[in-house]
Amino acid sequence: MVAEEDLETVLAELRRLRTRVPQLTGALAAGVDGLVVAHDTPGVDPEGLAALTAAALTAAALGVAVRVTDATGHGGFRELLVRGERGYIATYAAGRSAVLTLLAQDRVNVGRLHLEGRRAGARVGELLDAAEAAARTARPGPRPLGAVRAAPPMPTRTPRTTSAEARTATDS
């Protein structure tokens, strides 16, 4: 679970992004599971867009792209650009478990879209990854079945000496 102030920070980043690229018509941060994290998508259903983004990331066409990048050694998912008759949909990796999806008019400067989208994706990813790490440390995860909790370490003790061993410098 992401804290409310972290969600507000992500939303503020999405709004700044729309200011920097005026041809953007929407911006959405979502988990790769299809759940909305934050959105600034007037006129578009954010839950539907998040679910479609997650579906696109697992679709056959992208699956082939992922296999090609793996086979050629070019690494994992970074971005996906779809051009429609009336605009663009760009999706960027945002950390380990989120994506940033941008909706843009057909007259957008695609180079600027990529530049700003990549930067915003990196910022959103850093924020969400840090929030996820903080949440993990705040509550320990469930133990796997059959796991045994380790006992706390025993304090180290010095061995006892007997009266025969307890000699002082004056006894010798």
Short description:
The chain is α+β, with helices and mostly antiparallel strands. It has helices at 4-20, 46-58, 60-71, 110-138, and strands at 24-31, 36-40, 79-84, 87-93, 98-105.
Can you give keywords for this protein?
172 residues; 5 strands; 4 helices; alpha+beta
Walk me through the structure.
It is built from 4 helices and 5 strands, in the order αββααβββα. With 172 residues, the chain is α+β, with helices and mostly antiparallel strands. It has a 5-stranded antiparallel sheet. The protein is globular. Mean pLDDT is 80; it is low at 145-152.
Helix content: 40-55%
**Number of helical elements:** 4
What is the global morphology? globular
Q: Mean of residue pLDDT?
A: 80
The largest sheet, given as strand count, sense and whether it forms a barrel, is: 5 strands, antiparallel
Uncertain residue segments: 145-152
Which structural class fits the helix and strand makeup? alpha+beta
How much of the polypeptide forms β-strand, as a percent range? Answer: 15-25%
Distance between the termini: 70 Å
Q: Could you state the order of secondary-structure elements as H and E?
A: HEEHHEEEH
- Main β-sheet, spatial strand arrangement: 2-1-5-4-3
Number of strands: 5
Break the fold down into its secondary structure elements and pairings.
Blueprint: H1 4-20, E1 24-31, E2 36-40, H2 46-58, H3 60-71, E3 79-84, E4 87-93, E5 98-105, H4 110-138
Antiparallel strand pairs: 1-2, 1-5, 3-4, 4-5
Helix pairs in contact: 1-4
